[in-house]
């Protein structure tokens, strides 16, 4: 009975292949390439679906990867691309599709190229960025718009793992109505970078380091201090004058009130505000810390009693 069971377990173990979840591949095994989104370079927060531009669209039975919460919040739309990539297998100028651009599709590409649109891909969870096209100034003053039609992938591997992916956009063609072939190529290169360090280049401190504008911070700090002091001085002068006026006798207060218009807010209850309560020290102690201590003592006694009864009932 044990031998057949061991044979079944061994067979299932042998049939297991690497994928994008285990990040381990055998030579010739397909590495899935996902397309994600496009957007203008000057505003990275403005993104659209990759196929909102008239790129080569996948077939209906293409695989889509469901995102997690973080990817969903960042607007990811991961759809499997028709560009096939195989582990350690070079591909030379393979055609993705041949697109017949209409007038509307040409205008969409022109808007994307003028706004320096980029697109994002994912290979083995590694992000890849590329540009849609370029603008070339002409001598006559009008800019010439070009569309990149070739994607050149340079992938580094170490053992059974994908370490690094670089993309170069090549073969620019003028943006005009007509037939445009989209192609791609893949080249594999061995590297000594370990798998644990493959994301280090995306987390480079020099890339994310920003110069601190100390003068601007000091200027803002001094401005806040100046405005705070000015407001405090005006408020203290007003309160000091009101306190001195309301601290006078009733006869003097009636004479001052003739020169003052209608009062509003706390000034209407100035007699109650500045009148000390009876047993001021006891009242302050109760309001300050007394009632907290009393409530704490009763809570401790109550929970101790409840806990003692629960232990007795369990016994």
Summarize the entry for a quick read:
The chain is an alpha+beta fold. Helix content is 37%, strand content 28%. It is built from eight helices and twelve strands.
Q: Which characteristics define this entry?
A:
single chain; 315 residues; 3 domains; five-stranded mixed β-sheet; elongated
Class based on secondary structure composition and strand pairing: alpha+beta
- End-to-end gap: 49 Å
Please report which band the strand proportion falls in: under 5%, 5-15%, 15-25%, 25-35%, 35-45% or over 45%.
Answer: 25-35%
Look at the structure and give the mean pLDDT. 80
Radius of gyration from the CA trace? 37 Å
Q: Mind describing the biggest β-sheet? A: 5 strands, antiparallel
Shape: elongated
Unreliable residue stretches: 1-18
Counted up, domains total: 3
* Share of residues in helices: 25-40%
Give the number of DSSP strands.
12
With helices defined by DSSP (H or I, 4 residues minimum), what is the helix count?
Answer: 8
- The ordered string of helix (H) and strand (E) elements is HEEEHEEEHEEEEEEHHHHH
Describe the structure.
By secondary structure, this protein is of the alpha+beta class. The chain has 3 domains: 11-206, no CATH class; 211-275; 277-315. 37% of the residues lie in helices and 28% in strands. The protein is built from 8 helices and 12 strands. It has helices at 2-15, 69-73, 103-114, 205-208, 214-246, 250-258, 270-273, 280-314; strands at 30-31, 33-40, 48-49, 79-80, 85-86, 91-101, 117-123, 126-131, 133-137, 143-158, 161-174, 178-190. The protein is elongated. It starts with a helix and ends with a helix. Residues 1-18 have low confidence and may be disordered.
């Amino acid at each position: 009975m044990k031998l057949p069971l061991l044979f079944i377990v061994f067979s299932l173990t042998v049939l297991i292949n690497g994928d994008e979840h285990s990040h381990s591949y055998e030579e010739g095994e397909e590495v899935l390439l996902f397309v994600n989104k496009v957007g203008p370079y000057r505003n990275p927060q403005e993104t659209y679906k990759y196929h909102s531009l008239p790129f080569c669209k996948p077939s209906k039975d293409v695989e889509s990867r469901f995102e997690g919460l973080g990817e969903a919040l960042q607007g990811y739309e991961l759809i499997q691309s028709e560009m096939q990539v195989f582990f350690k297998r070079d591909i030379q100028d393979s055609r993705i599709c041949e697109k017949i651009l209409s007038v509307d599709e040409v205008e969409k590409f022109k808007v994307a190229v003028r706004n320096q649109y980029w697109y994002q891909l994912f290979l083995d969870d590694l992000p890849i960025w590329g540009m849609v096209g370029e603008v070339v100034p002409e001598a006559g003053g009008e800019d010439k718009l070009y569309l990149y039609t070739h994607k050149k992938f340079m992938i580094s591997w170490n053992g059974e793992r994908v370490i690094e992916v670089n993309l170069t956009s090549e073969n620019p063609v003028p943006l005009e109505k007509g037939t445009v072939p989209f192609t791609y190529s893949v080249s594999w290169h061995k590297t000594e970078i370990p798998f644990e360090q493959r994301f280090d280049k995306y987390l480079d401190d020099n890339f994310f380091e920003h110069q601190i504008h100390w003068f601007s911070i000091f200027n803002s700090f001094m401005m806040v201090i100046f405005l705070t002091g000015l407001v405090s001085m005006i408020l203290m002068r007003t309160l000091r004058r009101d306190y001195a006026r309301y601290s006078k006798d009733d006869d003097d207060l009636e004479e001052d009130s003739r020169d003052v218009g209608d009062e509003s807010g706390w000034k209407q209850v100035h007699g109650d505000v500045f009148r000390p309560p009876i047993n001021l020290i006891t009242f302050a102690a109760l309001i300050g810390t007394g009632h907290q201590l009393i409530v704490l003592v009763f809570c401790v006694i109550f929970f101790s009693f409840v806990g003692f009864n629960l232990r007795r009932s369990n016994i």
